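Weekly sync, protein design subgroup
Attendees: M.S., D.O., the rotation student, P.L. (late)

Item 1: inverse folding check
M.S. brought a backbone from last month's batch and wanted to see whether the design step gives back something sensible before we order anything. D.O. pointed out we never logged the input encoding, so this time it goes straight into the notes. Structure tokens as presented (291 positions):
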């Protein structure tokens, strides 16, 4: 079963009630595992909300924009969020899906005005009394749009196993994609005893990347990124036992200060660099998923 479509929701805080009503309409798709929505109210206390928002834009498969007068009046949205969203849209053909909540004049904003609205006949949601039926229609249209646009073969997520890529390149690409995952790096640095524990540590916010708390296990670590155990977790017995264990070595593409529980991702690993516990046959993996 494919993973859910990751959906970033951009909206003004005064429109939170519309966000909630839309999520209620999307509930069947969310419960069925078709859509995984994210919005800023999911940011936990103590996290850096500014950084978390931009990390989630990078994480998402598509973005939903809730257009309204207060949306266009938000300096953070227009000056900070929209330029990042536009960059992904222009460089990756990344889906930006706007919904018009109320009547507003945004024609001077050329890029946003060029985006096709999801609304039926471009009619604002607030013009329906009550809007329940049109929210249901919007939910159906959004699900259909995500099914046909986001998971196409030319999207970054699907490029990993694109069978048009030379077979000599595919195994290395697959290997590097997996080993750049944040949870994989945490495990390879011996900050966790197992890959499952590494994922838990990341998900619970015990890991910092370049000094920022990051709880996305699938985050792709870049060359030069510094990975560190959060200060509050440095006395965790599981972590201390893992880092001192002699059962496995830290691979050469990582540099780790065991005392500080801090390491650097030096470079992308070659197939031979990764200490797999069994003989790895990546060509067979690629062939299996290419059927």
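Designed sequence read out in the meeting:
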């Amino acid at each position: 079963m494919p993973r859910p479509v990751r959906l970033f929701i951009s909206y003004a805080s005064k429109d939170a009630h519309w966000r909630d009503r839309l999520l209620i309409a999307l509930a069947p798709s969310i419960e069925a595992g078709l859509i995984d929505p994210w919005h800023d109210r999911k940011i936990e206390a103590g996290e850096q909300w500014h950084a978390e928002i931009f990390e989630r834009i990078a994480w998402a498969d598509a973005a939903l924009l809730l257009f309204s007068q207060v949306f266009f009046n938000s300096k953070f949205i227009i000056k900070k969020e929209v330029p990042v969203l536009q960059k992904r849209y222009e460089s990756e053909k990344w889906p930006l899906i706007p919904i018009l909540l109320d009547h507003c004049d945004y024609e001077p904003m050329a890029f946003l005005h060029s985006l096709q609205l999801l609304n039926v006949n471009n009619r604002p949601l607030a013009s329906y009394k009550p809007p329940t039926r049109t929210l249901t229609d919007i939910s159906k249209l959004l699900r259909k749009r995500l099914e046909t646009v986001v998971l196409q073969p030319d999207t970054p997520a699907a490029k990993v196993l694109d069978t048009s890529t030379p077979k000599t390149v595919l195994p290395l690409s697959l290997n590097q994609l997996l080993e750049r995952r944040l949870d994989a790096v945490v495990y390879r640095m011996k900050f966790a005893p197992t890959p499952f524990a590494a994922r838990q540590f990341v998900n619970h916010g015990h890991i910092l990347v370049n000094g920022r708390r990051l709880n996305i296990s699938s985050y792709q670590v870049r060359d030069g990124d510094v990975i560190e155990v959060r200060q509050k977790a440095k006395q965790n017995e599981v972590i201390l036992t893992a880092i001192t264990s002699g059962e496995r070595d830290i691979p050469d593409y990582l540099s780790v200060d065991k005392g500080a529980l801090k390491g650097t991702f030096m470079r992308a690993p070659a197939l031979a660099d990764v200490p797999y516990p069994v003989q790895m046959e990546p060509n067979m993996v690629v062939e299996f998923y290419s059927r």
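Discussion: DSSP finds twelve helices and nine strands in the chain. Residues 115 and 172 are 37 Å apart (CA to CA).
Action: P.L. to compare against the previous round before Friday.
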